[in-house]
Amino acid sequence: MWRKSRSKPQAGFTIPEVLVTLIILVAILVVAAQVLFETRNAAERQRAQVEARQFARSAVEYLHFMLRGSTDLNNRNLNVPNPLSLLFWVSYKTGGGGGDPCASTGGGGGGGGGGGGTPPTPVQVSFDNVSDPKLADLGTDIINFAKADNVLQLSWVFWPGYQHGATGCIAFDLGCAVSNEWNMDLFKQATGAHYNDQGKLVSEPFLVVGDDGSAAFMQIVDYQASYCNPEGPGGFCRDKPGIKVITNPGLSDNINPPGGLPCINNPLANIGVRYVALRVKNGWLQQKNGYFDPTNPDPDAGFFNILPNVEDLQIAYLFRDGSIRNATVPRDCSWATNCIPVQDSVVGNALPANHAANVIGLRVTITTRSTTEMPITQETRARFFRPEAENRPRATVRDRFYRYQTSTMILLRNRSPQA
Q: Is the pLDDT assigned to residue 328 strictly greater than 60?
């Protein structure tokens, strides 16, 4: 009898089953890859957007912090407080020999040369929509303003007037409880004493203001002696403790306030005032501790980087009469030369509406962009461009950089109406 035959059991998958499995696996991998790459692209876009936004906010906060307290410590004319807290123009003394403008024909108007000297040459130091790439990135703004490192306002025991290299005495006794040496050290610290390019110990430029609010730049070029005990009759520090110094009106390179040196009576030395310049260059928000000199053969001297990826800095000026300048496209400079407020060193109760002393606020607009351009695989079309800001039109060339623009209104606190 034949044994019943049994077919051998077969293990594994059939070809159709394998094909179906592979198709499902490939579909899962494709979907996973699409989700992964899209998630990565979204994360990269978010990174670029957040990066640009953070740069813009940081820049605006920094400018707001720096500018809102701008002051030249000059409140001697309450109708025009802090007239040089924003610096738009300076003057170069081109000759004349440095006489006292109080003795000039016409009195207190003050010529740059004094006593018949050559009239001052105005030099613009703040700019709207820069056109020279050596000064800043094209189309951006530059601003110079004063800030107070300390609030010392010192009287003069002996005022030397406007003679270059003249000896005077500034009342100062904060260190006299210790010694003359300590008093001198404190005074040097307060005036920003440093060695210049010639190796000479000089002060930072400071302001001397008269009783009518008129102001002039002054610089100490030699710290001579501290007199905690007055010198007595015939001395420079004759009747009060003070510091005997040699000064130059204007800076040592003959930079004067806009309009030249005014006639100053009953002067005070605002030794804590320092000027600061802000600009955008090479994609960086940059700062200089000192006024910006566009005539310097090296216009980058003294500047240091603050924040990267800043593409534009625009400033609109808010005036006391309610007008806002440099705020619209197309750019209109019919109100002032180069869209920069007029300025001089002599203040009065009747200043033109577009005078720098009538600027009570600023609207600062910052445009930043991402560090890197988005790859073409993520942004197939170049669809972005630098947007319009104040009186600067938008860019015409498109790219793949993400951008963020933000503005802030800054009230100049030291020019707000007095209660």
A: yes
